[in-house]
Amino acid sequence: MSFTPQYSGRELSWLQFNKRVLEEAIDSKNPLLEQLRFLAIFASNLDEYFMIRISGMKSQVDIGLSTPDKKTGYMASEYLNKMLKKSKQLISMQYEIYQQRLEELNTYIKFVPFDELSKKKQDKMNRYFKNIIYPILTPIRFSSYMPFPLLPNLSVYLISKLQDAKGDIHYSVVTVPKNVERVVHVKKDHFILLEDLIVNNISYLYPGLDVLEVYPFRITRDFDIEFDDQSDDFAKSVMSELKNRKRGDAVRLEISNQASPEVLSFLKENLDIHKKFIIPIDGPIDLTFLHELHDKIQTRVGGLSFVPIPPINPRAFSTDESMFDTLRKKDVLLFHPHHSYEPIIRLIKEACEDPLVVAIKQTIYRTNKDSRIMEYLVKAAESGKQVTVLFELRARFDEENNLYWGTVLERAGAHVIYGVPNLKTHSKVLLIVRKDKNTLERFVHFGTGNYNEDNAKIYTDASYFSSKKLIGSDATHFFNYISSYSQKPRYKRLVASPNSIRDMIFDRIDQEIANQETNQNGRIIFKVNSITDVKMINKLYEASQKGVQIDLIARGICCLVPQVEGLSENIHVRSIVGRYLEHMRIYYFHNNDKPQVYLASADLMTRNMETRIELALPIYDPVSKKKIIQLLHLQLEDNVKARENIEGHYDYVKQKTPVVDSQLELYHILK
Questions:
Q1: What number is the average pLDDT over the span 509-532?
Q2: I need a surface site. Which of 217, 397, 576, 605 has the fewest CB within 10 A?
Q3: Residues recognised as catalytic
Q4: Element spanning 97, H or E
Q5: 276 plus 391 within the same structural domain
Q6: Which residues make beta-bridge pairs with 264?
């Protein structure tokens, strides 16, 4: 098979995205503590990469998969090695940046090793260890009759090499507890890490034994699981598989680069892990603790974090009238987190309390653990309203939370659906049905983001509220379809995957090609998280070759290679990584100066097109459409946080006057 340069590999493109996150930790435009927080975000992103992407590729190698990757032409073993090599390069870069930022931080606070504390402070910390930490710890010593335990995923451990009075060597592991603060405040401006405190008191755990060596380490396990859609009890099947996840194979061992060959050999053998998955670390294991450090220090030292930006209370909902009264008169578009998320919660609250509301239906892909939305749905169900909620149990890392809320709602009397067989429901829609005498009203909220109040503070998403009859009718058909597994309905406004969203986009692209040939004004703008679908990429290449001007604002993965002569010279790709996580999905078609604009839940990925239930909503309201187009052009003008993709490589857009940070500028426009 000949290798084609038309596509970037998905897994390597994701690493490019995480590199852009890492680069935010060296961007002087970000305050110091925010730079540290980007290091933590990079770290948690990479954890997931190993748990899902590295583990997935490793599984292909283990079963001897002989089919080359469709986009890159790499065999699985070759691709895995490239993924590991690039990951290790980024980890090395991560710790170099960490050391640099730590030196700057020492200007404000002293984040120091235990042995650099004064005798008085060491004594204070030793008392804290014996009174608070020691009772929590459980050292596990290994012997012929006590085998190596199954160590949970992503915990930091300390492994000790011990010697008894006879001279025999033993090994023991203790977990650095997660239920106490990892960043320990010593006094005034002095801080240390919890594992450093434990190491310096490690002999207290092993009386009568000599501690010869002690090193921190962490294990990352295969967290990718498959669920049996055909199970008679799908929820029970998910619970069973979640237990199996904890026993996944080790796919990464992070350990201090000071660890001796003997300790490394011991862990390698007992974890059954190949040396290429072992990563020596020059610094603290697991830099996600920097989130905690950020929160502790920002309250003590001002000016090191982003200036808080309070969410805007939308003018459309600022009156005393009910949201139902407002939506009868007009549709409303909001942009989060710039706009407050409260209107969504308020809408559900009003529906819960309004005696004329007879039904509330909603899809939930991800929600927060202390969700007020869920609490109001529970109250609505308990009051006798018809409440129907689809929880997607295959929403990775949110399975347990969705199971919890599904169980709570079932007990309250709601009708709970745990997904649709063979399809993952990723759409975000809410339908409220209100009956006043002989009049039936339907109110719809359509979103590009999840019903998660925590994420709404940092994810950029759009919310669209409407009482239009065609949208309400479509929403009714949609919920009947997913609750009864019936034939896919014909919609008047909504466009739904599987397949129809791609078909719609292809039709619109063909129209832009025709407009280009006739009027030389073919124009497309897509704002999405990721672009991986080969059919979509090839269609965009076709449009580019016909002269259609295409701008793709893709925050994460992009397998399309732009700016290649004869292939994609009319396609420009940019990624915006900044204060907020860009999460909105928008499709724009110029349509011969009569723009067609869609808000959507779907990225341009094969899974979103073919194996997920997704929704796209055409926006006809002229005020809302104008705002969406304004947002798109604002992001195309960004020269602060935008990076351009030139033949697969990303570089910051050159700054010019005026300076435009689209995330901040949008706030000022909306305000």
A1: 98
A2: 397
A3: 426
A4: helix 76-105
A5: no
A6: none
Query: Does 337 sit behind a cis peptide bond, omega within 30 degrees of 0 on the bond before it?
Result: yes
Q: Please give the full DSSP string across 472-533, using - where no structure is assigned.
A: HHHHHHHHHHHHHT-PPPPPSS-EEETTHHHHHHHHHHHHHHHHHHHHS--EEEEEES-B--
In the chain, % of residues over pLDDT 90: 83
One domain for residues 458 and 523: no
Q: Quick count: other Cβ atoms within 10 Å of Cβ 621?
A: 17
Q: How far is CA 249 from the centre of its chain?
A: 23
From the CB of residue 293, how many other CB atoms can be counted at a distance below 10 Å?
Answer: 22
Residues forming the annotated binding site?
Answer: 45, 366, 396, 459, 555, 583
**HSE (CB half, 13 Å, CA atoms) of 296?**
24
pLDDT single digits (tens) 291-335: 999 999 988 888 899 999 999 999 999 888 999 999 999 999 999
Q: Residues annotated in the binding site for ATP, as ranges?
A: 45, 459, 555, 583
Strand partners, 110: 190
Residues 530 and 466 in one domain: no
As a whole number, the mean pLDDT across the chain is: 93
Shared domain check, 400 and 281: no
Examine the pLDDT at 546 and tell me if it is beyond 90: yes
Region 515-534: mean pLDDT is 97
SS3 of residue 197 by DSSP: helix
pLDDT in tens, 371-424: 999 999 999 999 999 999 999 988 888 889 999 999 999 999 999 999 898 899
User: What's the full length of the chain, in residues?
Assistant: 671
Q: What CATH number did the domain enclosing 274 receive?
A: 3.30.1840.10
Whether 29 is covered by a domain: the verdict is: no
* DSSP H or E run through 55: helix 55-62
Rounded to whole angstroms, the Cα distance separating 345 from 639 reads 35
Residue positions forming the annotated binding site for Mg(2+): 366, 396
- Kindly report the CATH number assigned to the domain that includes residue 654: 3.30.870.10
Q: Which two tokens stand for residue 171?
A: 């090994």
How many whole angstroms separate alpha carbon 640 and alpha carbon 660? Answer: 6
Same domain? For 649 and 589 the reply is: yes
The average pLDDT across 157-167 equals 95
Rounded to 10 degrees, what is the CA torsion of 183, 186, 188, 191?
-40
Q: Are 559 and 13 in contact (CB under 8 A)?
A: yes
